[in-house]
């Protein structure tokens, strides 16, 4: 039975996964990418006899769609997307499309920072006892996993861009880690638009669902005071006592749900930094809701390895610790990184600035940073912000050179931290490429 025509804009991980799932469900599928589709993805399309084009968008082939799945990287302001919407074609994101074809319990995690660590940690806690997949912005696409794995549960890392195109998507458990200004270029530079986009994660939830969030985050608290949500709220906090949810008391995490309490000592958590206590609270609240045994949760915390490019300890050379935090693509993420430094730090920073305000970093830079290496095409703003705060501030456009300078400047007991606070697209393919180049340069010292 033919379902109609499914057009997919963007031939990346989410696009190819959706194409495969769509074809299996009886859609006539067409994939269109303005750029070049990677060879590995082209081969999948060819092997599955799915029609596609790249380096162009043929409007006539796109505007006769019944439904369009738009890659999260394509902004709404693109003319083609405007045309699609004007003629009344339904636009969906991959998470929306795929969720229609699974009855699994969905745990969806969003936020400006911490979502990858929280998603990876949650999956790590659940997989010991449950059949569970990890998808969304991480690993294999959600659509592909629904088609091939058919897990009973999914942990999904979802971005605001994916939430912008949901209609019925409804996670059993939604997590909002925090909200700080990010990606404002996609939201008409209005912070309230970005906030509303994040809260869409709750819009289809019912009273039988759960919403886990950071009660210390003023932006979240303010929104919840003025807006109603249906789901059961389970906040977490480092400073307040929480009756239903999680809080910190004498270095112990205390989680209470329906009068059922568990206590987790934090000294077993392998992740460093206050922000990771919050990520641990969110993940263990999910595990508690899904009836994972306390012993399993504790053991899982002890053997969790963390996420690549997120405060990742690379090597110690001449008593200097090299740390890869390339995933810090905004100021708030770098704030957490600098906060967790416990030694004098040589800081490698810079890239494509998304309208950054560096003020909140000043106390940490004054207290902990001994030298700054600017790694970007345009470093003027960094020099203006930090030039008077440190004795050494230099610029370079090569990772290998940045690491060599750091090696010369750092002394025994110091840290060298790559935490760019910016996007990577000026000198690198993406933050992963930036992080790998850093690690290779360190290993070649």
TrEMBL record:
Reactions accelerated catalytically: UDP-N-acetyl-alpha-D-muramoyl-L-alanine + D-glutamate + ATP = UDP-N-acetyl-alpha-D-muramoyl-L-alanyl-D-glutamate + ADP + phosphate + H(+)
Domain of life: Bacteria
Free-text function comment from the UniProt entry: Cell wall formation. Catalyzes the addition of glutamate to the nucleotide precursor UDP-N-acetylmuramoyl-L-alanine (UMA).
Annotated family: Belongs to the MurCDEF family.
Record carries keyword tRNA processing: no
Domain Mur ligase central: 109-287
Pathway assignment: Cell wall biogenesis; peptidoglycan biosynthesis
Residues annotated for ATP binding in this entry: 111-117
GO molecular function: ATP binding; UDP-N-acetylmuramoylalanine-D-glutamate ligase activity
InterPro entries xref list: Mur_ligase_C, Mur_ligase_cen, MurD
Protein name: UDP-N-acetylmuramoylalanine--D-glutamate ligase
Species the sequence originates in: Winogradskyella luteola
Biological processes, Gene Ontology terms: cell division; cell wall organization; peptidoglycan biosynthetic process; regulation of cell shape
PANTHER family linked to this entry: UDP-N-ACETYLMURAMOYLALANINE--D-GLUTAMATE LIGASE
EC number: 6.3.2.9
Pfam family, one: Mur_ligase_C
Keywords: ATP-binding, Cell cycle, Cell division, Cell shape, Cell wall biogenesis/degradation, Cytoplasm, Ligase, Nucleotide-binding, Peptidoglycan synthesis
Places the protein is found: Cytoplasm
GO cellular component, one term: cytoplasm
Principal localisation: cytoplasm
Class in the EC hierarchy, top level: ligase
Domain Mur ligase C-terminal, first and last residues per copy: 309-422
